[in-house]
Amino acid sequence: MLKSIAYKAETVQLYVSQGGRCALCAEPLDYDSGWHDHHLVRKVDGGSDALANRVLLHPVCHLRSHALGLQIAKPASEKRL
Predict the structure, then answer these.
(1) Number of structural domains in the chain
(2) How high does pLDDT run on average in the chain?
(3) Of these four, 5, 19, 29, 46, which has the most CB atoms within 10 Å of its CB?
(4) Which residues lie across from 57 on neighbouring strands?
């Protein structure tokens, strides 16, 4: 259960850092559209679960990124503190 809580907290951090938008299409993420947690460097290629290696994508954008071999960049945070 603690792992689940930690994962949800990380998802919120990703959501906030991306301004609530998909890292591929930049359209808003919400419960209706859903989202997938995408690794920028795949785990099988040595990528980690660190937040710096993950972004949130719409499910269809996630499928498209893999089907077309798209490189996804981490969006710049809209809020700089």
Answers:
(1) 1
(2) 91
(3) 29
(4) 36
The verdict on residue 51 lying in a domain is yes
Chain-centre distance of CA 17, in angstroms? 10
Domain containing residue 28: 21-74
Residue 78 structure tokens: 């809209």
Distance, in Å, from the CA atom of 81 to the CA atom of 67, rounded to the nearest integer, reads 36
Nearest one of 79, 61, 44, 68 to 53, comparing CA atoms: 44
Q: What digits encode the pLDDT tens for the residues 33-57? A: 999 999 999 999 999 999 999 999 9
Number of other residues whose CB lies within 10 A of the CB of residue 35: 22
Residue 36: inside a domain: yes
User: pTM of the predicted model, to two decimals?
Assistant: 0.87
